[in-house]
Amino acid sequence: MRTAAILGLAVILAGCGFPSTASTASVTPSPLGIPSQVVSGPRITPPTVTPPTPPGTNLPAFACADAGGGTAGIANETAVRVAAQFGYDRFVLQFDSSVPAYTVKRQNSPVFPVGSSGQTITLSGTAGALVQIHTATGQNTYNGPIDFVHADYLVLNEARLTGDFEGYLSWGLGLKTAACLRTFTLADPPRLVVDFTTASS
């Protein structure tokens, strides 16, 4: 009688939706709530990014010779700068439109003609280089210094305007010692750069 009553109670409980303890499964959650089985998608390889070329690289080699270049056209000088860098001293002429035709001539003394008067001027140093710009002027566009003296530079001791007449612009560079040079042009803004190596100074 008691056994029949117990079996009847079990049937009633099962019919009321109470789960049987015999069918309960143990579920262990995965760490961080991530399913134990994850289907990974295809791997995407990011494209190779080439960094931009740093400024001041791929410059021409120094040469113990005169130099020239530029383009045809008329331009106005707007700025002049000198600077001492690691391994070289730099002279820069800046223009408003383009870098006209130019020459850089080395010489054994720092003596330069001034204008068309036939007079000469002696700059600081024992050697020199004459920078001449054809079809250019700075009379109305450049109001900066016309004489840069830097006795503490290893090579470029002085840079002085020596001529601005009839479309010819010239700067004399007094050098502490004869040095090899390199010339090149830059854009935005247009510039002529003349470097003198200080490697042997």
Describe the structure.
The protein is mainly β and 201 residues long. The protein has a domain at 67-197: Immunoglobulin-like (Sandwich). It contains 1 helix and 13 strands. It has one helix spanning 2-15, and strands at 67-69, 75-85, 88-95, 102-107, 111-113, 120-122, 127-134, 136-137, 147-149, 156-165, 168-175, 181-186, 191-197. The longest helix is centred in the first third of the chain and has 14 residues, at 2-15. It is globular. The protein starts with a helix and ends with a strand. Mean pLDDT is 83; it is low at 1-27.
Give a brief description.
With 201 residues, the chain is mostly beta strands. 7% of the residues lie in helices and 39% in strands.
Number of strands: 13
Strand content: 35-45%
**The CATH topology of the domain at 67-197 is what?**
Immunoglobulin-like
- Structural class by sheet pairing and helices: mainly beta
**Which segments are poorly predicted (pLDDT under 50) over 5 or more consecutive residues?**
1-27
Provide the spatial order of strands within the biggest beta sheet: 1-4-7-11-10-9
Average pLDDT, all residues: 83
CATH architecture of the domain at 67-197: Sandwich
Output the number of helix runs: 1
| CATH level-1 class of the domain at 67-197 | Mainly Beta
| CA-based shape | globular
Helix coverage percent:
under 10%
The rounded distance between the terminal residues' Cα atoms is 119 Å
Largest β sheet strand count, sense and barrel closure: 6 strands, antiparallel
CA-atom Rg in angstroms: 40 Å
Secondary-structure element string = HEEEEEEEEEEEEE
